């Protein structure tokens, strides 16, 4: 098994789906010859040709609107939106159109579209490049929203997303692209799109996190282990739907939970997790639900990002507060 | 700085002439029923002429009967087509069965001409999921689009899909109105289709009004036909009250796109005789009878009726009989629509995802239990 970065794992997964299904198409801004501004699609145009991997004019609504027309004519589009902030230009195509088509057609027409888009703070990008905008999209019926937190999941989930017959918003974490490397199997495998993953078992408290916050949670678990505090860490992986079963199984055991996200507290997936626990499993808890999130300001100017983003220290403080409740 | 008294670029001249190539609406018969282009007129056989007249009579009868149903409270949202019969039936007549149609909400007549049923049209208005049964029946038409402009970017994608599939003599056929040309998606759709040289035919049915906002507020451009030129797409205006001209232009546009020359843009000059929708819009709030008068004189049925009557191909009895026959069909369609089964929320839930999520699955159970009572 080769050790791959998070980004190379995605490239490997895209290579698999292009190879396995001749109806798959990758397109977007700079994804062709340039291989994407982050090189996620590097080498794929050379390997599969300009008919399958190609650049488009610079217009996000056009890119996603075109994906709908391509789906209607039998193709399986994998459009890239260069940064998640740019999805703002294409909200109708996502929420007004593609997510509704199975419903409109009583199941006759599916929209097997996988929208790949990078997001996430900590890389000091220009405005509207790093924002966590999943909160805008997890409230759209008919749309799956997923985000992997490690290279193994990145490959298995991108393959599963493309093979899925519903539209999937596939969020790739910018900071993890090259900072994470792990063993990734060769060839075809999938990771389910609707299952959370217990990435570390523990018995005293559960941290539910996703994307880069999973790594922050793992740092906390490592640190507290030295004090004989046993932390269970769950990586949501899917933000819509939320895998309540895995979360409830964990809190039934630990009776305490902290939910960590990079997005502002008013948005993101954490509120839905908290609501599900409150609605369906509140009696398992012997302390309030703890939440760690960014403050409810606009995503900050780049030089202030590290002061704004929730990190391991913030999670640790909240975990101690809940443990000592 | 250098001398400021001498212009390098004569922007005033460019501005005053830039629309010139696009503002010669093609016409075959004028509003008095006079044949103004005999050569083009002679391309139509007697049967063709009668057929086109019948289609316009059909569309007007559909409009009248539908407004009746609407006044009786038997329909939901309906966008009247009164006045736009030549524009809609002329363009629709150039479409082929294999073409993908992307209509807007005022384009139910083209959708029905392409294979959907009147019953489905009524179900669409009433709000019933069986309105889209035409997908299942293999009709290559998409939904009557509510979001202005969205159909243009989707049509560009379908046109690219057609090209990639290697389908010959097939195009994507998209409609919007004058207001639609202001939407970003309008330009993105035209430009994407152009960039990929994909077979799309874009129609702008310029009926003068976007609800209450007149055409001149949408843009200072003298024509909407020229809106393609910035993206390398040829365009033309046609007299959209003249079905013969509209058909010929639509056919040329379709042939051009289908032959692999890239997309085309056609502006049909027409008029919305009635309200924007059946839901309370009152045109007297924003336009006068005097403004409307010249357009009513251009009624597309009047001019072709005169030509056909002169040629002894048409008479009022024939028209009355046809209208009565069509209206009977529409009444039957309404009865069929009203007999559609009660919709189940559990069905909606089942069609939200291919594999229901846990929350959706729980709701399916909940609603199935309710619905079985």
| Strand percent estimate of chain B | 5-15%
Query: Approximately how much beta-strand content do the residues of chain A carry?
Result: 15-25%
Largest beta sheet: strand ordering of chain B: 1-2-3-7-6
Beta-strand segment tally of chain A: 14
Radius of gyration of chain A: 19 Å
Average pLDDT score of chain A? 97
Distance between the termini of chain A: 45 Å
Look at the structure and give the CATH class of the largest domain in chain B: Alpha Beta
Uncertain segments of chain A are none
- How helix-rich are the residues of chain B, as a percent range? 40-55%
The parts of chain B where pLDDT drops under 50 for at least 5 residues are none
Could you characterize what this model shows?
- The complex is a heterodimer of chains A (325) and B (373).
- Chain A is an alpha/beta fold and 325 residues long.
- Chain A has two domains: 2-184, Rossmann fold, CATH 3.40.50; 197-323, 3-Layer(aba) Sandwich (Rossmann fold).
- Chain A has 13 helices and 14 strands.
- In chain A, the strands form four sheets. In chain A, strands 9-11-10-13-14 form a five-stranded mixed sheet, sandwiched between helices. Chain A has a four-stranded mixed sheet with strand order 5-7-6-12, covered by helices on one side.
- In chain A, strand 10, helix 9 and strand 11 (231-235) form a beta-alpha-beta unit.
- In chain A, helix 9 (212-225) packs across helix 13.
- The relative contact order of chain A is 0.13.
- The mean pLDDT of chain A is 97.
- Chain B is of the alpha/beta class and 373 residues long.
- Chain B has two domains: 18-341, Thiamin diphosphate (ThDP)-binding fold, Pyr/PP domains (Rossmann fold, 3-Layer(aba) Sandwich), CATH 3.40.50; 343-373, no CATH class.
- Chain B is built from 16 helices and seven strands.
- Chain B has a five-stranded parallel sheet with strand order 1-2-3-7-6, sandwiched between helices. Chain B has a two-stranded antiparallel ribbon with strand order 4-5.
- In chain B, strand 4 and strand 5 form a beta hairpin.
- In chain B, helix 3 (46-71) packs across helix 4 (85-93), helix 3 runs antiparallel to helix 13 and helix 3 (46-71) crosses helix 14.
- Chain B is globular and about 85 Å long.
- In chain B, 47% of the residues are buried.
- The model of chain B has no long low-confidence stretch (mean pLDDT 96).
- The A-B interface holds A 25, 51, 56-57, 59, 61-62, 64-75, 92-93, 96-97, 102-110, 141-142, 144, 164-166, 194, 240-241, 243-245 and B 100, 129-130, 132-133, 135-136, 142-143, 147, 150, 152-162, 164-165, 172, 184-185, 188-189, 191-192, 195, 347-348, 350-354, 357-360.
């Amino acid at each position: 098994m080769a050790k791959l970065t998070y980004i190379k794992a995605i490239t490997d997964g895209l290579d698999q789906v292009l190879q396995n299904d001749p109806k798959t198409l990758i397109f977007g801004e700079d994804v062709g010859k340039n291989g994407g501004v982050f090189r996620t699609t590097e080498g794929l145009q050379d390997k599969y040709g300009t008919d399958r991997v190609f650049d488009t004019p610079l217009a996000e609504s056009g890119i996603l609107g075109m994906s709908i027309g391509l789906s209607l004519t039998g193709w399986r589009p994998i459009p890239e939106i260069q940064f998640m902030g740019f999805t703002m230009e294409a909200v109708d195509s996502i929420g007004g159109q593609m997510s509704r088509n199975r419903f409109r057609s009583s199941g006759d027409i599916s929209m097997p579209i996988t929208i790949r888009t990078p997001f996430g703070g900590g890389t000091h990008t220009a405005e509207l490049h790093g924002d966590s905008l999943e909160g805008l999209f997890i409230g759209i019926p008919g749309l799956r929203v997923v985000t992997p937190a490690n290279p193994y999941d990145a490959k298995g989930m991108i393959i599963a997303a493309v093979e899925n017959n519903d539209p999937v918003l596939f969020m790739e974490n910018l900071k993890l692209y090259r900072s994470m490397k792990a063993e990734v199997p060769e060839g075809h495998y999938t990771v389910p799109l609707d299952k959370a993953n217990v990435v570390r078992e523990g018995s005293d408290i559960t941290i539910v996190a996703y994307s880069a916050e999973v790594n922050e949670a793992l740092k906390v678990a490592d640190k507290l282990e030295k004090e004989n505090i046993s932390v269970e860490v769950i990586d949501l992986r899917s933000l819509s739907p939320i895998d309540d079963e895995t979360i409830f199984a964990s809190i039934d055991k630990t009776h305490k939970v902290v939910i960590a996200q990079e997005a502002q507290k008013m948005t993101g997936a954490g509120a839905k997790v908290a609501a599900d626990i409150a609605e369906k499993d509140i009696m398992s808890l012997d302390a309030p639900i703890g939440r760690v999130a960014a403050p409810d300001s606009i995503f900050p100017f780049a030089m202030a990002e590290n002061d704004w983003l929730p990190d391991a220290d913030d999670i640790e403080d909240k975990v101690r507060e809940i443990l000592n409740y | 700085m250098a001398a400021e008294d001498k212009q390098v670029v004569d922007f005033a001249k460019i501005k005053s002439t830039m629309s010139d190539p696009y503002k010669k609406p093609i016409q075959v018969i004028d509003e008095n029923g006079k044949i103004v282009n005999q050569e083009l007129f002679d391309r139509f056989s007697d049967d063709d002429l009668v057929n086109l007249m019948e289609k316009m009579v059909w569309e007007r009868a559909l409009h009248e009967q539908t407004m009746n149903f609407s006044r009786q409270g038997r329909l939901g949202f309906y966008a009247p087509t009164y006045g736009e019969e030549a524009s809609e039936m002329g363009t629709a007549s150039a479409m082929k069965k294999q073409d993908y149609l992307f209509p807007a909400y005022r384009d139910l007549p083209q959708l029905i001409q392409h294979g959907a049923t009147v019953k489905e049209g009524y179900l669409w208005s009433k709000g019933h999921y069986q309105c889209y049964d035409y997908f299942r029946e293999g009709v290559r038409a998409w939904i009557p689009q509510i979001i202005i402009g969205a159909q243009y970017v989707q049509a560009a994608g379908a046109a690219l899909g057609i090209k990639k599939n290697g389908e010959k003599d097939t195009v994507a056929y998209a409609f919007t109105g004058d207001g639609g040309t202001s939407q970003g998606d309008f330009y993105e759709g035209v430009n994407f289709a152009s960039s990929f040289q994909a077979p799309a035919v874009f129609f702008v049915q310029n009926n003068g009004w976007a609800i209450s906002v007149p055409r001149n507020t949408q843009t200072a451009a003298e024509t909407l036909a020229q809106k393609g030129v910035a993206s390398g797409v040829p365009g033309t205006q046609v007299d959209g009250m003249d079905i013969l001209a509209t058909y010929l232009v639509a056919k040329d546009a379709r042939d051009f796109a289908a032959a692999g020359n890239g997309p085309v843009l056609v502006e049909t000059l027409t008029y919305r005789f009635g309200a924007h929708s059946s839901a309370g819009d009152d045109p007297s709030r924003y336009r006068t009878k005097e403004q409307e008068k010249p357009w009513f004189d251009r009624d597309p049925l009047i001019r072709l009726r005169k030509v056909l009557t002169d040629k002894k191909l048409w008479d009022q009895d024939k028209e009355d009989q046809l209208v009565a026959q069509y209206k009977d069909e529409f009444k039957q369609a309404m009865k069929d629509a009203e007999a559609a089964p009660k919709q189940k929320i559990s069905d909606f839930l089942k069609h939200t995802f291919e594999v229901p999520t846990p929350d959706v699955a729980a709701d399916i159970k909940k609603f199935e239990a309710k619905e079985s009572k």
